[in-house]
Structure formats: structure tokens, C-alpha cells
Amino acid sequence: MMARVLVTGAGGFIGSHLVEALLARGVEVVGLDRRRLGEHPIADENLAAAVGNPLFTPLCRDLSTDQLDDAVDGCDTVFHLAARPGVRPSWGAEFVDYAQANVLGTHRLLDACARSGVRRLVYASSSSVYGPANRPSREADPTCPVSPYGVSKLAAEHLCLAHSRRPDSQLTVVALRYFTVYGPRQRPDMAIGRLLFAAYTGFPVTIFGDGSQRREFTYVGDVVAATLAAAHVDARYAVVNVGGGASVSMRGAIEEASKVTGRHIPVQVADAQPGDVSSTSADLTRAGRLLGYWPTVGLHEGMARQSAWLVNLSRDRLAAFTS
Ligand code: NAD
Ligand code: UGA
Q1: Number of separate domains in the chain
Q2: Complex-level ipTM
Q3: Dist. CA 120–CA 319, nearest whole Å
Q4: InterPro entries in the record, alphabetically (predicted)?
């Protein structure tokens, strides 16, 4: 049973869902994010249900620069979701932020965890550590990231595992390799939200390449269930895939979005993007064994839930879908 936990990236898409699930279980949550509540509309909307709950303490900190000891103090478990996400923008000058947030930020958090005797860190890793694959990826497969983002997520995964292997360490680590997550609050740069936005507004979605690329889309509620289960895995360290149970082509996703909304999806085509792999697919054997995990929400139902959320979104937040 968790008493008090830290969630990093609490103001983000997945982090805010995790915060709500923990609060609903009566867990005391410190929610750390570099987005300051009251000044950042995305974090404000994501955490609207958590703010005011006496079990929730928001904390504005940047993992790569601020002191973190008070954030981890008294926490038995740390859920580390804070990162600069997104595959395609990670080339060029932007990489500085990826390196600082994802690599340096993780290193500094791990040091603080070691100082305060945290027992378990659950790390939000990524399918992007695998690189090209022509069958469902298994955790023991060689890693071969093909984007700077994937490199930064793999580097941080290794940092977490190195800490758990230190002979003098109390910290145990479960790294979860999430596969393309979707659902309410999904980041506006991601594909499913852009398809649904196109359906309702007629603003065309740009498809990179010929639409044959495949993704194992994973519903956010399933990701949260796996993340909660990871707190209780009996292991010094483990790496576990978290996928949606099926790999779907972008053309298939467009068809599904059209069925869910009852509308045509206007599409424009652009070049395939460097760093995007042609297919992701997760072998979920280990997730079933270690986490008791199996995805429960399929693409049609998950898209319907995201669609219901999207149509009620504030004007300010909708603007992000066109940039
Ligand atoms: P998100 O951008 O919505 O949330 C990330 C949060 O982390 C943001 O609120 C951001 O402000 C915060 N953050 C970033 N850098 C920080 C720093 N230096 N200090 C403090 N806070 C910082 O992203 P998301 O889609 O919810 O992703 C959450 C995690 O899951 C990330 O680690 C991401 O790499 C991982 N992941 C996401 C997906 C996906 O499909 N969304 C898939 C695989 C892995
Ligand atoms: C997602 C997240 O953004 C990453 O942070 C995460 O680490 C990664 O999943 C993962 O699984 O590890 P991605 O798979 O690129 O990355 O997710 P989307 O942005 O939803 O893109 C899915 C596919 O749609 C990609 O092939 C992309 O090229 C395509 N796409 C996306 C478009 O064709 N047009 C768009 O406007 C957006």
C-alpha cells in the first residue's frame, strides 16, 4: 500500500490521469511539474479535478535545475513521467531541452531519491527505444533508437537501471515502455487528436508519408493501470512493455476516426519524417506476468472517449491543434 508518492510530469497528459487515479485510491500525492499552476492553461485544465483535493500538493520545479530533496522527502514511491516528449521535433537545436529534461533531469531526480531512501521508482520509458522492428518487440530485444528523443529516453532508462544495480542502493526500478498513448488530454501534437480535430473542424490533418506506418495505440486508462501495478512488482529492476494489444496503420486509424465521428477526415500529405519508425508493436507477455496487465479499451471506444473530451475543449486549447 502506498502512503505518499511523488508524480513528476503531473501537469501533463498521462501524469494528470495518474494523479487522479492515485487520489481516488486515497494516496497522498505530490505533483511536480515545471508548468506553474495558474500560469499554464494546459496544466490548469489537466489538474482541475486534483487541485483542492486535500491529498494533493502541487509543486512547481524544474528537474534539471531546481533542488528536489523536499519533493521526494517522505515518499516511498516516485512515478517519473516528466520529460520533453515528441519524436519529430527532437532533431537540431531543440535537443538541448530533450537532453536537459530527459537525461539531466532524470539523473538529478535519481540522486535525490538515493539521498532520501525512496524504495521504488517507476519510469515512463518509450517504445521509441526499440527502433525498426518487424515483429512484436520484446523487452530483451536489442535497442536501436532512431530519433534523438528515443536516445534520450533510453539514456534515462539506463540511468534508472544503473541506480537500482548499485550495491548500496535501496532504490528499485520498474521502467515501463509505453506505446503511443491516446485518450482525453492527449498532447495536441499527436496523431489521434489531430484526426478527431480534422473531423470536427474540416482543418486538414497532415499525414507524414503514405499512411502505411503502424502504431500500437494504447489507451491512457490502461497505461495508468499498468503504472499503478508497477509500484508493487517484486523485483530489484524490471523493464516492461505497455501496449494497446493491436498495431494499426495510420490509414486504419483515419477510417476508425471517421466511424467514431460520423464525419469525413480531410487529409493532406507530407514527407515521411526522420525519426519515425514504420511500425511499433508490443509483446505483452511480460506485462501480463509481472503487472497482471492486459489492455481493456480498444481503439474505437478509446477514440470515442477522446472525441467526447475534445468537443468540450476551450478555444485556447483547440488552437494548439493547428500549430
Ligand atoms: P506531457 O508533455 O503531456 O507531460 C510531460 C510533463 O512533464 C509536462 O507537463 C511538462 O511540463 C513536464 N516536464 C517536462 N520537463 C520537465 C522538467 N525538466 N521538470 C519538470 N517537469 C517537466 O507528455 P505525456 O505524453 O504525458 O508523456 C509523459 C511521459 O510518458 C513522458 O516521459 C514521455 O516520454 C512518456 N511517453 C509518452 C508516450 C505518449 O504516447 N504520450 C509514449 C511513450 C512514453
Ligand atoms: C508517441 C509520443 O509522442 C512519444 O512521446 C512517445 O514516446 C512515443 O509515442 C512512443 O510510443 O514511445 P508517435 O508514435 O510518433 O510518438 O505518436 P503520434 O505523434 O501520435 O504519431 C503516430 C503516427 O502518426 C506517426 O507515424 C506520425 O508520423 C503520424 N502523424 C502524427 C502524422 O502522420 N501526422 C500528425 O500530425 C501526427
Answers
A1: 1
A2: 0.99
A3: 39
A4: Epimerase_deHydtase (IPR001509), Lipid_A_modif_metabolic_enz (IPR050177), NAD(P)-bd_dom_sf (IPR036291)
